[in-house]
């Protein structure tokens, strides 16, 4: 991709995120809202390679669900990953794999296939189908989310796996045994109006 | 006795053995693009109604010509083809940007409508009864009908704008979306949408046959339409494509694995496609018309024949016999024990206690007892988990049980051993009463000969194949021997079977395949067809006779009596068949070969079907009328024989009518025809799976090489007419010339005659003599000069009468003589002035011409003292001129009217020169042309 199209692409992404930001800012003004914000979100990933277990988590996550449009947007700041085994591991992760200077964020923009009622107690299994953008590579995914409505508290959790190949994250042969080709991801948090 | 029996009873446990070296192979073959420059990786596939396969990857579209992939279209680089369709015999392409491209004679053109563009990637193009349905991933469903584009969106009732698939089923269009299944009825611009409940909302792919529609879900599993049951595929992985074909459901999951389930079966099985031992990650698949499945994968487009699978086992386990145990299990008798084999898991379980047995034959009776015939170890019976050995103690005196067959009433089990026939009473309770030797003492039977095969036919006759005595049949308590066939004596019979018509088939080592239809044994001559090939086993399936040989599998069509090499037909390596290891059940045939176990799905293999065949003109691009210029005397053609993934199995030949006398066989896909003359041609091409071109598919191509312009009728006509005109003109000119020449000659002769006549005319003589008479009296000297001049004149007349030309000088001598003569007569009344420059004297004139002019002047004019006649003779380079003043005589001398006009004609005909005659009131002048001497 040459710099021109890259610029254009980043602008399109920006405009999409403008919508998210506007929603977030304008929310309190709307009173009764069709939108739920993702709060206290924690993204955790585990790479179980034969020689090394890598674990890290990230709380720099912003997200919103638009109930009317049945849409979900999640924005993750890549430099928010913490809790690595060592600073060296973290540096490798940031510089070599995620390349956070080039790709500072990861996003998931999806539509909700199954519906849920935030007013009604219960456990809902909702699938979100959309584009997962990690390391600048987009992949269409259907990700299952479990949402639990219990009175005023709406909590959610989701577990899925990522194939490094899908997102063009190349593993050097020398660390082949240290990074799994499939990364387990767990996301938890609550939804608040 | 009981203790003895107990000692022979073994408690049998089935234990799992984890043998290494087991694998199953589905033969695959990679087909590369013809351009070679870049390999095809992944991409989408499509089969058109014309049998051709198409592939698209990014903007490049290719077609399979039977051997390689040829580029047929390249869209702009920014486009990516995401869907194929066939509409009104044209190929349509849909792209990721929502564009539609339509095949036209000159290539693909962008299809545009007034209604505007589709705004999302096109996922499916479906042509139904003249309408074109187009599904998009995010912009709803479109229908192109009568050149108008209708859109179905949320306002029309579409639950979602992302349409993953379309199908035509029960008169409706069915669309799979991200929010469920919709059916649409659309007639005369009236739209009727119905939402159908499905097991899941995320529809991935649809497939419909005449009776049922199947739905594959994006988040895993399939279900039949209106069924509440969801069938899992694998561990619930998402599915990209479903296709129902030949009573089987074929599914592609999002990880690129293919799965298949026979409709009756409960579970899906993975199809382990691989290329060079690397698993294929499949992007798309399609079936061709020859039973091959085509897979676009990470390595390129691969063809595979799933109707043929080879399961291999550890090398030390040599397969000897086969028996179906249940739907999913099979007993495999091997050189090292009896195994239960599960196809799905491809696992072997050894029957405990049999590991030392070489199992040659197997039989399952109605009481679920498994009879196991061995080599050297006698017979075993597995009943209710207990294994009983049957040996000499029970009356079985030969321990080599090669073959078993039960009578129709299931009362008797016949054993073929290396020591003759035995029979087992299947109803006898006590094992000690089971065995008896079967008519070994009968001298008409095989006695205690080696018996390889026993077979009970539909008429309950027992057929026996021996080593050395040919075959026997036992019916109505009598034996009959067969060892003579139409081709001679046969001794060794290894395998016997019966077809639907009741014909008995033998395989013999000496005469190959033999057939007995009630009277004589006929040899099918297969030995000659396949030299040095031994038949190991035969079995019938429908109207096919399957022949397992030491050089691969043959299938013979019983109607056509045509055998075909299955290994070659589907591009598999030759396999070596094994006796007693061939049987068919349902749609499947199982064949034991040295390499392992082969399963054939005959409904998929579609045997004895002629390949689809297309002839394509290579050069130049085919035009609608295929008319070539006359200088095009060499043409090349592509012969596209479509036989799935085994192009080498196809025989091809061609014949240009009125050019080739015989068919020309070819293995090349491109043929050249050279030395073609003008004319109308028809090229016939045939392809067949048989070397003798039976069941051939024929195709023909007509073309015309124009005649050159000079060989056309109108040109010939023009040439003929102009030639005739030219000849006529030429002849006419020739005649004219001859005529004028003749005329000139006549003229000349006449002139000479006239000249002579005039010169010697009595009048002239009279005048001359009168003058002379007067002169003699007056002046004798003058008189003699007069006579001298007269003689000069007459001599000249005589000298020049045959001459065409004389010099002006000579003529002047003559004229001067004449003038002298006349001046003596007219004296000073005749005034003659001659003024000729000396340089013209060499020019030529006709003899007597000047004289004639002078004579004419004197003859026609009055010459008196009052009116003297003045004659002037002068010359330029071109003319000599005679001019006189005009004073015509009142009474003219009689004129022949010949002189001047004759002179004119002679000048015109001989010298092509004209005399200029000028006549005024004052003078008369003649310019006589001077001829330059050559």
Summarize the structure.
The complex is a heterodimer of chains A (193) and B (934). Chain A has 193 residues and is of the alpha+beta class.
Strand order of the largest sheet of chain A: 1-3-4-6-7-8-9-10
Total helical segments of chain B: 10
How do the SSEs of chain A run, as a string of H and E?
A: HEEEEEHEEEEE
Q: Poorly predicted ranges of chain B (pLDDT <50, ≥5 residues)?
A: 1-18
What is the CATH-assigned architecture of the largest domain in chain B?
A: 7 Propeller
Question: In this structure, how is the largest beta sheet of chain B organized?
Answer: 5 strands, antiparallel
Give a quick set of tags describing it.
heterodimer, A: 193 residues, alpha+beta, Lipocalin, eight-stranded antiparallel beta barrel, disordered N terminus, B: 934 residues, Methylamine Dehydrogenase, Chain H, Immunoglobulin-like, 4 domains, five-stranded antiparallel beta sheet, 10 helices, elongated
In terms of topology, how is this protein built?
The complex is a heterodimer of chains A (193) and B (934).
Chain A: H1 3-30, E1 35-48, E2 53-58, E3 61-66, E4 71-77, E5 81-82, H2 87-98, E6 105-112, E7 122-134, E8 137-150, E9 153-163, E10 182-192
Antiparallel strand pairs in A: 1-2, 1-3, 1-10, 2-5, 3-4, 4-6, 6-7, 7-8, 8-9, 9-10
Chain B: H1 2-8, E1 9-11, E2 14-17, E3 23-25, E4 28-31, E5 44-47, E6 53-57, E7 60-64, E8 69-74, E9 81-87, E10 90-95, E11 100-104, E12 107-110, E13 122-128, E14 131-136, E15 141-145, E16 148-152, E17 163-169, E18 172-177, E19 180-187, E20 190-196, E21 203-208, E22 213-217, E23 222-224, E24 239-245, E25 248-253, E26 258-262, E27 269-271, E28 274-275, E29 278-279, E30 282-287, E31 293-297, E32 300-304, E33 308-312, E34 319-324, E35 329-334, E36 337-342, E37 347-351, E38 359-364, E39 370-374, E40 379-383, E41 386-390, E42 401-406, E43 412-417, E44 420-425, E45 435-437, E46 451-456, E47 462-466, E48 471-475, E49 478-482, E50 484-485, E51 488-489, E52 493-498, E53 504-508, E54 512-516, E55 521-523, H2 526-529, E56 535-541, E57 544-549, E58 552-557, E59 562-565, H3 566-569, E60 577-585, E61 588-593, E62 596-601, H4 602-605, E63 612-619, E64 627-628, E65 635-642, E66 651-656, E67 664-666, E68 670-673, E69 679-688, E70 697-705, H5 713-759, H6 762-778, H7 780-800, E71 806-807, H8 808-826, E72 830-835, ...
Parallel strand pairs in B: 64-70, 72-74
Antiparallel strand pairs in B: 1-41, 2-37, 3-33, 4-32, 5-6, 6-7, 7-8, 9-10, 10-11, 11-12, 13-14, 14-15, 15-16, 17-18, 18-19, 19-20, 21-22, 22-23, 24-25, 25-26, 26-27, 28-29, 30-31, 31-32, 33-62, 34-35, 35-36, 36-37, 38-39, 39-40, 40-41, 42-43, 43-44, 44-45, 46-47, 47-48, 48-49, 50-51, 52-53, 53-54, ...
